[in-house]
């Protein structure tokens, strides 16, 4: 649940090496004048030799000054969340903050555990993207009540105080669906996530708006919910085919990969017979055959904004309106074009 590294070398190890008490080592490392200059130098030299790193969490408990920030994501092995984490670290680390990362595996119960664990360690803030099971906000109020800074990103719950950093999922889905229609596909279905999750609800709204804008009736029979995994995509596509679909806009790249795998296994040509567009631009998107047209979420920039929102709030300043929307880009590859061309990028 909680992913972080702790130093293998402790104050006790240093004390044993120098044949002094741990309290002497602790005071020496803190620069206490109660310890002689010679002893302080010996302790620092031994600490460096053994590769000792101070426990920032323990230090914050002693001093009341916390430079640790908790971050909660559904899955760290998704390209999007990995890049968001990198974007956050690029801002927070130079500012003197350490990041503790929790993953929920898309479970609400694990999200609650993560919140409680981080608050028990008195983190300065919580940066969170919710699990697909999360529907209420009581645990978020606990963060605010503990005077920790709360920043929601990607998957957010409205009506809760604090900054919210999201992608422009509505316009991204609109652009992806319009692209499929312009490519000549006549019946475009949608592999959607849970409508209780803000980002998936916005993508479905964008998909439907693109149909209406193109003069196409919205048909709920070709919208398939809670399909965000490869297995889900593989299982859902035959239902889409039975309903007459000749293309799918998918709320995630993993579901889109499942669609492509099903079509290849069953001799359905992509893009000649069936079109596919995903979301997230996962690392495999341009490696599979055919390569996957997908929406790029600019995750690193989003992470920068999340970290900036935290720092602004820590300083006691207002973070604009409290909400920032990051644009998405459509990266066109083989899976959505009846006539293959080189990859191209379309900005929302």
Can you describe what's shown?
It contains twelve helices and 14 strands. By secondary structure, the chain is of the alpha/beta class. The strands form two sheets. It has a seven-stranded mixed β-sheet with strand order 1-3-2-4-5-6-12, sandwiched between helices. Strands 8-7-9-10-11-13-14 form a seven-stranded mixed β-sheet, with helices on both faces. 42% of the residues lie in helices and 17% in strands.
Largest sheet: 7 strands, mixed
Q: What is the beta-strand fraction?
A: 15-25%
Oligomer: single chain
Side by side, the strands of the main sheet go 1-3-2-4-5-6-12
Gyration radius over CA: 25 Å
Helix content: 40-55%
> Class by helix and strand content?
alpha/beta
Unreliable spans are 2-7
Task: Fill in the keyword field for this structure.
alpha/beta; 42% helix; seven-stranded mixed sheet; 348 residues
Short description:
The protein is an alpha/beta fold and 348 residues long. It has helices at 11-18, 22-29, 37-50, 56-63, 79-92, 108-120, 138-145, 169-182, 198-213, 230-242, 253-265, 299-314; strands spanning 2-3, 68-73, 98-103, 125-128, 149-153, 163-167, 188-191, 223-224, 247-250, 275-279, 293-296, 323-326, 329-332, 344-347.
Layout of SSEs?
Layout lengths: L1 E2 L7 H8 L3 H8 L7 H14 L5 H8 L4 E6 L5 H14 L5 E6 L4 H13 L4 E4 L9 H8 L3 E5 L9 E5 L1 H14 L5 E4 L6 H16 L9 E2 L5 H13 L4 E4 L2 H13 L9 E5 L13 E4 L2 H16 L8 E4 L2 E4 L11 E4 L1
Parallel strand pairs: 2-3, 2-4, 4-5, 5-6, 6-12, 7-8, 7-9, 9-10, 10-11
Antiparallel strand pairs: 1-3, 11-13, 13-14
Helix pairs in contact: 1-2, 1-3, 2-3, 5-12, 8-9, 10-11
């Amino acid at each position: 649940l909680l992913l972080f590294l702790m130093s293998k070398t402790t104050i006790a190890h240093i004390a044993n090496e120098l044949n002094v008490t741990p309290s002497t080592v602790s005071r020496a490392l803190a620069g206490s004048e109660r310890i002689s200059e010679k002893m302080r130098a010996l302790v620092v030299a031994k600490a460096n030799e053994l590769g000792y790193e101070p426990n920032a969490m323990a230090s914050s408990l002693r001093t009341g000054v916390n430079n640790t920030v908790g971050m909660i994501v559904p899955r760290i092995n998704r390209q999007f969340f990995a890049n968001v984490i990198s974007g956050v670290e690029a801002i927070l680390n130079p500012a003197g903050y350490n990041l503790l990362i929790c993953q929920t595996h898309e479970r609400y119960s694990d999200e609650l555990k993560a919140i409680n664990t981080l608050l028990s360690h008195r983190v300065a803030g919580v940066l969170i993207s919710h699990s697909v099971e999360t529907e209420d906000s009581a645990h978020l109020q606990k963060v605010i009540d503990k005077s920790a800074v709360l920043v929601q990103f990607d998957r957010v719950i409205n009506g809760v105080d604090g900054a919210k950093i999201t992608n422009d999922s509505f316009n991204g889905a609109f652009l992806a669906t319009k692209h499929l229609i312009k490519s000549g596909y006549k019946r475009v279905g949608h592999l959607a996530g849970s409508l209780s999750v803000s980002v998936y609800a916005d993508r479905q709204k964008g998909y439907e708006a693109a149909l209406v804008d193109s003069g196409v009736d919205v048909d709920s029979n070709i919208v398939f919910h809670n399909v965000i995994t490869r297995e889900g995509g593989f299982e859902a596509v035959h239902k889409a085919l039975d309903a007459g679909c000749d293309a799918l806009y998918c709320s995630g790249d993993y579901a889109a990969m499942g669609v492509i795998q099903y079509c290849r296994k069953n001799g359905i040509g992509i893009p000649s017979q069936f079109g596919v567009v995903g979301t997230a631009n996962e690392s495999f998107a341009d490696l599979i055959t055919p390569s996957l047209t997908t929406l790029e979420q600019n995750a690193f920039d989003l992470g920068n904004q999340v970290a900036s929102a935290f720092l602004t709030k820590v300083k006691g300043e207002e973070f604009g309106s409290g909400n920032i929307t990051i644009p998405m880009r459509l990266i066109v590859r083989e899976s959505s074009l009846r006539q293959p061309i080189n990859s191209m990028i379309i900005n929302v």
